[in-house]
Design goal:
The protein has one domain: Purple Acid Phosphatase, chain A, domain 2 (4-Layer Sandwich), CATH 3.60.21.10. 20% of the residues lie in helices and 27% in strands. Strand 2, helix 1 and strand 3 form a beta-alpha-beta unit.
Length: 273
């Protein structure tokens, strides 16, 4: 099913000292597909020529037994992306619930989904760090796949991870500019404590309903006034960018809240813009 909502494409520049003059590494960030179909996005991305496409989780939906999930729509979308760009993805809370379901049939279906995603050429980051290199810029990309309790964090500044746990999961923050891809933005204090330079997250769907000055009103689990809903935030030396996502799930509506495609340009410089 194709949806009528408008799209917003937002570009941010992240200035990094020491990069070669005139270089740029462009990241495209998508999140929260929820097995919906969207026409024209690979073609939109081709026009801006990202060096990598990052996917912030909730590609499909957590099923409820005995209904097994459908993920063909999501796989078709990512097949089109992977045919054109390097694609990297982390799981979201829906994948975590599906993967950890009590029913063995559901767990087996998740394994099949994951295998098919990898076969398409999507690099899945489950507490992994890889190196990306393009246009004279080399950066680290870390993908976090945390315990489901992290999704219970709802307050700005609240800590979701015990001290040292992110390092235990994915290792210490590497030398050099490091992008952390993690589904929920609510654990931003922990990402900053780990040392991430740039964090890309989704999960909040832009707050479902967005009002001027107030921003997003509702998050997953009927969370009122989530702390991070859409856009750029600074937590110490860490920049957090939250995408409002593409799809819907439990609350199938968007008001003042277009579908959201984010571009983050890593460029030379000494200040964040």
């Amino acid at each position: 099913m194709n949806h009528p909502y408008a799209y917003e494409e937002k570009r941010y520049e992240i200035h990094v000292p020491g990069l070669p003059v005139g270089t740029r590494f462009r990241l495209a960030f998508l999140s929260d597909l929820h097995n919906c179909a969207f026409e024209g996005i690979p073609e939109r991305l081709e026009k801006v020529k990202p060096d990598a496409v990052l996917c912030g989780g909730d590609i499909a939906n957590c099923p409820k037994f005995p209904l097994l999930p459908s993920w063909d729509t999501a796989l078709s979308f990512y097949a089109a992306l992977a045919a054109k760009f390097p694609v990297y993805a982390v799981p979201g809370n829906h994948e975590a619930r599906w993967r950890e379901a009590e029913d063995a049939g559901l767990r087996a279906s998740y394994v099949k989904f994951h295998e098919q995603l990898v076969e398409l050429g999507v690099v899945t980051l489950e507490n992994d760090i890889v190196t990306l290199d393009a246009n004279g810029i080399c950066l680290n990309l870390a993908g976090l796949d945390p315990d489901r309790r992290v999704y219970k964090v709802r307050t700005r500044g609240e800590r979701a991870f015990p001290d040292g746990e992110i390092e235990r999961l994915i290792g210490p923050k590497p030398e050099g500019f490091t992008v952390l891809l993690s589904h929920t933005p609510n654990a931003a204090a922990d990402y900053a404590a780990w040392g991430a330079d740039l964090v890309l997250s989704g999960h909040i769907h832009g707050g479902i309903v967005r009002l001027p000055k107030l921003g997003g009103l509702v998050g997953p689990g009927i969370q009122a006034l989530p702390p991070y809903t859409k856009g750029k935030y600074e937590i110490g030396t860490t920049t957090l960018i939250v995408g409002a996502g593409l799809g819907e799930h439990s609350i199938p509506v968007r008001i003042g809240n277009p579908r959201h495609i984010v571009y983050a340009d890593i460029v030379p410089g000494n200040s964040k813009v």
